[in-house]
């Protein structure tokens, strides 16, 4: 059942409307201007009968699910309500001598129609208020549901992303254990720092750029142990961007892709350049790496990272964000654009 939340202002407006209606009717009553008591009783009777029936009408209407009300019913209900009060007002007119000059049925019908016409704007006002409140309530509930769905989807995507990141890091350690135990132990320590940072960031809706850069530095340091001279990287991050808030685990996803599908596929290795710049409240995270971007890879191995990144950007920022990957000057250039 939908219950319209009426505030004091609504009932004040309703009461004022019925005062106006009662005053208008009083001006057309045949009661003598000198008969103060009769005119006061007539006015109060009109006022409280109209307000009382209007209140009952509101109570009945709120018991009806608006989903079951058609357009024709939306127009019919105010007419039924106003006709009911119109009949009551006609009876009041009769009791106070208002039918003295109404000698035939046609005149009586015209009086009923006049009374209906007098009150019908009040009923339409209530209907507009009633359905506008319901519409706003539905809009808020729909928005809340969409927000909960987005949060749920984001959490699911993060849960997929962390195992993917861990899988890549463990591959690096596995390679080290084959030829250098000392480096393998160092990489395990490095990995523990990476996991702590990535898990902390994964629980946040926003992260500072400095946190993302720190995670990226640790990740690349770990990969450097595996690739040695085959991997070189450079950070071009301005210091005044440290506290800019961005989507967590976004930069690191690009780096994982650059290492695995770029540097890892080249016998001689290559270089990764990480940059960040701001233009008109929009931050651009740029990762350039040696290699060639293939929009249609031969396998789906590792494709979950970029796919999740794209979905997370859409969920969190909508069309205000974007992810583009292109081939430029014999390098792969990945750019994340997002507001901050």
Structure description:
- The protein has helices spanning 8-28, 36-62, 71-95, 105-177, 181-202, 209-227, 251-261, 304-317; strands spanning 207-208, 231-237, 245-246, 270-279, 282-290, 322-328, 331-339.
- By secondary structure, it is an alpha+beta fold.
- It has 2 domains: 8-142, no CATH class; 179-339, Heat Shock Protein 90, CATH 3.30.565.
- A hairpin with a 2-residue loop joins strand 6 (322-328) and strand 7.
- The longest helix is centred in the middle third of the chain and has 73 residues, at 105-177.
Keywords:
single chain, 340 residues, alpha+beta, Heat Shock Protein 90, 2 domains, five-stranded mixed beta sheet, two-stranded antiparallel sheet, 7 strands, 62% helix, disordered N terminus
List the helices and strands and how they pair.
Blueprint: H1 8-28, H2 36-62, H3 71-95, H4 105-177, H5 181-202, E1 207-208, H6 209-227, E2 231-237, E3 245-246, H7 251-261, E4 270-279, E5 282-290, H8 304-317, E6 322-328, E7 331-339
Parallel strand pairs: 2-4
Antiparallel strand pairs: 1-3, 4-5, 5-7, 6-7
Helix pairs in contact: 1-2, 1-4, 2-3, 3-4, 4-5, 4-6, 4-8, 5-6, 6-7
Brief synopsis:
The chain is α+β, with helices and mostly antiparallel strands and 340 residues long.
Largest sheet: 5 strands, mixed
What is the count of structural domains? 2
Tell me the number of strands.
Answer: 7
- Taking all residues together, what is the mean pLDDT? 77
Shape: rod-shaped
CATH superfamily of the largest domain: Histidine kinase-like ATPase, C-terminal domain
Q: What is the CATH architecture term of the largest domain?
A: 2-Layer Sandwich
Structural class: alpha+beta
Low-confidence runs: 1-5
CATH topology name of the largest domain, in short, is Heat Shock Protein 90
Q: Give the helices and strands as they follow along the chain.
A: HHHHHEHEEHEEHEE
């Amino acid at each position: 059942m939908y219950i319209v939340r009426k505030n004091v202002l609504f009932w004040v407006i309703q009461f004022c409307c019925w005062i106006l209606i009662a005053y208008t009717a009083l001006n057309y009553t045949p009661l003598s201007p000198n008969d103060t008591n009769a005119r006061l009783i007539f006015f109060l009777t009109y006022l409280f009968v109209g307000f009382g029936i209007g209140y009952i009408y509101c109570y009945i209407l709120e018991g009806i699910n608006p989903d079951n009300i058609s357009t024709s019913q939306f127009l019919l209900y105010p007419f039924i309500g106003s006709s009911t009060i119109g009949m009551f007002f006609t009876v009041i007119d009769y009791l106070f001598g208002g039918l003295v000059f109404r000698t035939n049925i046609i005149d009586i019908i015209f009086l009923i129609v006049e009374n209906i016409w007098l009150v019908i704007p009040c009923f339409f006002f209530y209907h507009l208020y009633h359905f506008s409140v319901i519409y706003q309530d539905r809009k808020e509930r729909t928005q809340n549901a969409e927000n909960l769905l987005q949060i749920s989807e984001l959490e699911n995507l993060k849960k997929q992303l962390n195992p993917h990141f861990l899988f890549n890091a463990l591959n690096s350690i596995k390679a080290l254990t084959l030829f250098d135990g000392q480096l393998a132990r160092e990489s395990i320590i490095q990995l523990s720092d990476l996991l702590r940072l990535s898990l902390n960031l994964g629980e946040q809706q926003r992260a500072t750029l400095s946190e993302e850069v720190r995670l990226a530095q640790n990740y690349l340091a770990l990969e450097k142990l595996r690739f040695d001279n085959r991997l070189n990287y450079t950070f071009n991050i301005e210091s005044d961007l440290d506290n800019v808030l961005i989507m967590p685990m976004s930069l690191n996803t690009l780096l994982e892709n650059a290492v695995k599908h770029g540097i890892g596929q080249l016998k001689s290795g290559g270089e990764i350049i990480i940059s960040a710049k701001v233009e008109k409240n929009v931050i651009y995270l740029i990762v350039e790496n040696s290699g060639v971007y293939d929009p249609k890879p031969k396998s789906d191995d590792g494709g979950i990272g970029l796919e999740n990144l794209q979905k997370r950007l859409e969920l969190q920022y909508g069309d205000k964000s974007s992810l583009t990957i292109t081939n430029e000057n014999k390098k792969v250039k990945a750019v994340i654009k997002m507001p901050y």
